[in-house]
UniProtKB/TrEMBL annotation:
InterPro entries: Restrct_endonuc-II-like, Restrct_endonuc_IV_Mrr, tRNA_endonuc-like_dom_sf. SUPFAM superfamilies: Restriction endonuclease-like. The keyword Transmembrane helix applies. The keyword rRNA processing does not apply. It comes from Agromyces indicus. This is Restriction endonuclease. GO terms for molecular function: endonuclease activity. Keywords: Endonuclease, Hydrolase, Membrane, Nuclease, Transmembrane, Transmembrane helix. The chain crosses the membrane at residues 57-78, 90-112. Residues 165-261 form the Restriction endonuclease type IV Mrr domain. Pfam families: Mrr_cat.
């Protein structure tokens, strides 16, 4: 349950972020764009308007004071002439108790700080969720002006397909993966005589092979896509539900192709060579 200040801050954040969403985005992309920006800002909002961090520093000041008193009392007793040394067991026992107290204080302090961190994280998630809902409504409001400082577009991760995909469905799935990775204009081609290219964007072309599990893409098909890319001028991506031969991976590494293996049922995408790992890590960035 959000407090009134946090609720107000979340609503205001959602309105601001929604107003910065670029016009014309599909609902899924607009929602993901707002949600990512809200998640980043929510932590700061909770830190400013949420519950304060527990102040435990004064515990240790009091603890240091107890040590000072104990040491002073022990010193004054020991300095007295004829001090009976068997009584030194009393100050020693008190020192042991202080050490035990320090351990207990440290444990309680850690528990309090962890509890505060968990509470702050829970509040940040609630703030982000509310801001994302408000932001999507603002992004879809009719008549909204084009933002002067638009948010960076984010495309949602493709959902798992429990029953698999057809060959055409695999092409659409790959287009969604390319949008998620940053090629927001990726589209499935409408022509059959496309040189083996199934998905295109301004800077990328992709071939899709929807194969049986553990079926390897022949190295010849990887070479063919490299030739098409060299003629086309755009970067090449290869997606398959199967695997690649060692020769295909080695050739793709030399030729600059990115090889991916998708798992439609699990909603997963795996980089099959070094170039693809860079794409997964950094996204599909336009060539410099």
């Amino acid at each position: 349950m959000l407090t009134e200040p946090l609720h107000h801050a979340a609503v205001e954040l959602g309105r601001r972020l929604g107003a910065r969403v670029p016009l014309g985005l599909p609902a899924a992309a607009a929602s993901e764009t707002v949600a990512r920006a809200a998640a980043v800002a929510a932590t700061r909002i909770v830190a400013e308007a949420g519950p304060p961090r527990p102040a435990t520093w004064w515990w240790w000041i009091g603890y240091a004071g107890a040590w000072a008193v104990a040491c002073g009392a022990a010193s004054s007793l020991v300095d007295r002439p004829g001090f009976p040394w068997p009584l030194a067991a009393g100050p020693a026992a008190f020192a042991v108790l202080l050490v035990v107290a320090a351990v207990l204080v440290a444990v309680v302090q850690r528990w309090l700080l962890e509890s505060h961190g968990d509470r702050a994280a829970s509040l940040a998630r609630a703030v982000a969720e509310l801001a994302a809902r408000v932001g999507l409504l603002e992004a879809q409001r009719p008549g909204r002006a084009e933002p002067a400082f638009p948010l960076a577009v984010a495309w949602p991760r493709p959902a798992p397909q429990p029953y698999g995909v057809s060959h055409r469905g695999a092409e659409q799935l790959v287009a969604d993966w390319m949008r998620h990775l940053g090629a927001f204009d990726a589209e499935v081609t409408r022509f059959t005589a496309d040189g083996g290219v199934d998905v295109v964007s301004a800077h990328w072309i992709a071939q899709v092979k929807n194969l049986a599990e553990r079926t390897a893409v022949p190295v010849a098909q990887v070479r063919e896509l490299a030739g098409v890319a060299a003629h086309d001028g755009r970067r090449a991506l290869f997606f398959t539900s199967g695997t690649y031969t060692a020769g295909g991976v080695a050739f793709a590494d030399r030729a600059g192709l990115s090889l991916f293996e998708y798992h439609a049922e699990g909603g997963a995408l795996r980089a099959a060579n070094a170039h693809a790992r860079v794409v997964v890590s950094e996204g599909l960035r336009p060539p410099a």
